[in-house]
Amino acid sequence: MKIFRILLAGLMLTFVFQSSVAQAVCNQSSASTADNDLWNTHGCWQAFFLWSYKAYDQRQSDWNNRGWNDACNANMEFPKHWNAAYLVTYGLQDANCCSWHGTTDYRKLGEAAGSNFHSGLYHDAGDGTSLFGGFTPHTFGADELTTYCPLYNATSANGNPGSRAGDFMHEGWHGWLHKYNWNNGSCGGHRCGTPGACTAKDACDYFYFHGVGAFAFGALYQTDGTANRFHSPNQVQVEFLCDVADYPKSWVPNSVRQAARSDADARAAARFINGPGYKCGNPRPW
Amino acid sequence: MTKLILVLLPVMLLQHRISANATETSAQPPNTQSRPSQQPSITVQELAKRQAPALVGTGEEAKKNALAFIDWAGASTKSQDEIVRKMVAGARENPDIIMAFCDEAFAKQDVDHSRALVALSLIGEARSQAGMECMVKFARQPLPEKGTVVEGEIIERTNLAMLQAKAIDGLAYLRNEKADQFVVEAAAKNPSRIVRAEAIAAYLWNHNYDAKSREILKSVIRKDEVIFLDRLVKQADEPKESFNRKLAVYLKTHPEIMPPGPEKAEPQPKETVGRPPKF
Q1: Domain extent for A214
Q2: Looking at the domain assignment, is residue A58 inside a domain?
Q3: Residue A230 in contact with residue B262, Cβ under 8 Å?
Q4: Preferred mutation among B49, B79, B114 to probe A, highest tally of A CBs within 10 A
Q5: So which residues are the signal peptide here (chain A) (predicted)?
């Protein structure tokens, strides 16, 4: 009888655990103004998400309860994810005079295919609330890029398409560090603690300053192995967000640009050991 | 009964495994019941033709118009920036409109961050007395000490700090003595580095980076943040040549911010199956 009770308890616990995992998803009852404004520029363009789920290697089993079969419900994670992918694919101006990097760089960094930027990866979503994103290298099969609830919840300053896409860049850059065997720190690929001017914890990087035009479009992956030509994950993210804020395509909504700038400036002030990083735009309110 | 369970257990586990595999192998592409939408290029053209709601009226009418304007302005494009600025300037003397913006900023700060950001931007752009009071009230809200910790930061605290930074932009843009005093105080004493950094940038920009404003800030800000006085602002539409010149000066003035060279990681042993254990 004792074995029976243990087995029964184990089975019950298994089912309880499984059902709680299935229910624990991010806030699926709303989308931010920035998400909705960008969404309205395409009104759920089906041809795009039928392309992007392959380009970002999203798998049904990972996104089933996150809008996989409700891909035009802008409150769900899967539609929010491809809304961000849409911004990366079409939303940047690529101004030769002024952009930090080009669409070709940001696409290769975020998309799944292996390239000079990283080995092959796939995108999934996680229910965690203590991280924005994560990069998990796998010995067998593609590496894993996970985005978490704070990037999907409208209440969060990061629950908008620019910040979400910014995280594709950040985590993708961990993929770059991994591919080329660079050590950016032992705390999740960042420096541990709150070193220097950084106010985050275990999430700090150096900013490797470079001029505009120092990297031709498509050449973001390049380095000479010195601080003169190198990037950190937070830096790539800030540069992307500044490009969204300052050099977007003409149709990118103001709310998307404002949220991107706000994220870039906050991150530039708080995430760098040798900070501040660049500040984008100017402080005029509108 | 015990035997039955023990017999059934592998079957149940196998069934679970099979069903999981079946899901993977029969994965369907994402789907929707919505009607196919038109090309975004057409949608974008249609959106560009939308007229801005009038920013007029009093009482309930003003509130309704202000909310509609926030909807429109959030979705507006770069080429419409000047229209937004002119319309908001035109509503400067209408306290009901400004208060409706203000109420919306407070109402949405914990619900829809990007909408609160848009509302605060409009208040700041209006340069009005009512707006000033609103932004001071907004920027004086205490930053949360507890909440959800994301990467070492309390996310509710960071969220509010980012909105307060936007309120500070608006206060600095007023360019009057009282608002300036508040901005300088924020540059020195706001508990968030995000807000202090923005206050320094906004104060300098609104005073054309003159020597006097640098001195005023330098006398009050934290010693370890004096570098913010020289922080590079990558102005929109600034040609790369001029920006790169400023960058070179910045790095020469502050050699301490040059990072150390990157390091290679320890070589990771490759996981291999290897030889079978000795029999």
Answers
A1: 33-271
A2: yes
A3: yes
A4: B114
A5: 1-24
